[in-house]
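The following block was generated as part of the benchmark described in Methods. Ligand: S-adenosylmethionine.
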Amino acid sequence: MISARLLQIAMMIEKGKVVFDVGSDHALLPSFLVKNGICDRVYAGEIAQGPLNKAIENIKKWGLEDHVIPVFSDGLSKAEEDVDIVVIAGMGFHTIKHILDSCEVERYMYFLIQSNTDVDLLRKYISDHMYTIEDEKVVYDGFYYQVIRFSADLHEPYNETEIEFGPINLKRRDEVFLAYLEDRLKKLKEINELAKKDEYSEKIKQIEEILYN
Ligand code: SAM
């Protein structure tokens, strides 16, 4: 079974599309997508030989050689023409930025990104390029993770609140998103109290407004 985080990503993939999983490590997500009939063909891309070997081993063990294709590739540099959807998960924003900067974003239907750091900078990147955030989900898997689906379709830049919290999150107010905000609020209040400062008072006010107004 895959983690709740990877499962959330899998649930955001349209059935029957060709997926390229950048930084696939053990090929867990590609294998899950094929085993569960979501995709017939998935590329498991890796920049490092060790994780790529592990992916190849798993693909063979699970008999998925005709459906999961391991690719030694920095980001999407070796991606074939038939790729529809790109997944980039479990990395920091700066690695993700390098991968996005080095590819033709317009070539793909959409990207599913789960950044381990600086999700606000990721949204700012999307906004600065006038791309469209099509969907967002917050998932709890020991930590709160955010998964963002965006495409190269033209969109006017997002405002500061949308960049920080997510335009779809703010509209949809999913239970997990609200729980994430409650958790953030609690932590900010604790820091303020410990430091005997009100450094985060503005942020606290902003989160309380989203939660309770
Ligand atoms: N995507 C999986 C997940 O979310 O569980 C694995 C995450 S693992 C922490 C990050 C993987 O990305 C590593 O195996 C690393 O080698 C790979 N990676 C880092 N930079 C990459 C790049 N530019 N292109 C392809 N793979 C990359």
